[in-house]
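Sharing a chain and its predicted structure for anyone who wants a worked example. Both blocks are below, sequence first, tokens second.
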Amino acid sequence: MPTDTPFRTRELMPNFGVEVLDADVTRETPETMADIVSLFHRHGALLLRGQTMSPAQQVTFTNLFGPPADNPRKEYTVPDYPDVFVISNKVVNGRNIGDPDAGTGWHYDMCYDRYPGLCTILHALEVPPEGSDTLLSDLCAVYEAFPAERRQDLEDMVIHYSYISLQEMKGNVITDLHRATLPDVLHPMIRRHPINGRPALRPCFGGTRGVVGMPNPQGQELLKELVAYATEERFIYRHKWQVGDILVWDNNCTLHKGTPFDKTKHVRHVHRTWVQSPKEHYLDSAYA
């Protein structure tokens, strides 16, 4: 990255994540924004604080990382902006304006898709004074810390993911369109990052049917064990939200979850966009 960039940076934690200081994503030059996107691809997560961004500006920002991905649950998207999903417990005219329970278990976004999310972008509009933190697990560090003999055991394993299973677990409505357009998929347990080449141990539990070739409950128990290891405190960046924060993370090399807060007293209101991975990033995946 050029040394004369008009912003400063600092790490979110050693060897993971970067905060960009002194930047306004709605006003920077294309060259500066290209530098910021490049930082994201090198560090796995990107934070910018104090940002004011409309839904239209969030779509523009999202396009810098790639084409926005579709949201299967249309009932919680911003009117006229179907790419912008609302995460909120706010009630207006007797109905929730957003999904109040999004992201409560460890996962990576769109794991159930043939081409999962490249990155997730959250913009905070209202935040509770306590709770509702976002936790990110650095899966490249998890891979590096994992015993070499165990890595070898996991190298050829494949995980069976299911959107239908995930929605059944949450008690959400499953439509015929969901069944027709979101079939079960298979993804490898260990993946090399498609851009920087770093390997990541990539277990997930929510929305999975198990490990291919391994009977349940052994397959599900293995996934639980690996997720527990991958989410030990030493691998975690904890983000405490402020209004105006933009947090972007790379689903190729992270797991994430949100922490609870008192929904009877406080409001969380966040706009989320996704970027879907290019097809060439997932040539090692298949339909179940």
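Comments welcome. The chain has a mean pLDDT of 93.
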